[in-house]
Amino acid sequence: MKEGADLISEMEDDEADKLDLAADLQLNSRLGCQTVIKKPGKVVVEIPAWNRNYISEEH
User: Is 32 domain-assigned?
Assistant: First the structure.
């Protein structure tokens, strides 16, 4: 998360457990599928280069 961490939900135990298995984990890493924007404002995230285009439209 590059900006807006104060606008999103707190990390729950399930998310923390899943992050234990993540590659290239950073101190501010979150799972987009687990994060809920709770307040209006600007939220900026960074998707790691190794993860871009990970899913192919052919599958």
Answer: yes
What are the tens digits of pLDDT across the range 2-52? 899 999 999 999 999 999 888 888 888 999 889 999 999 999 988 887 776
Q: Which domain holds residue 40?
A: 1-52
**24, part of any domain:** yes
CA dihedral 7, 44, 21, 14 (to 10 degrees): 20
Dist. CA 41–CA 51, nearest whole Å = 26
- Cβ pair 35, 8 in contact under 8 A: yes
pTM confidence score: 0.69
Q: What are phi and psi of 58, to 5 degrees?
A: -80, -15
Specify if 57 maps to a domain. no
Say how many domains are in the chain. Answer: 1
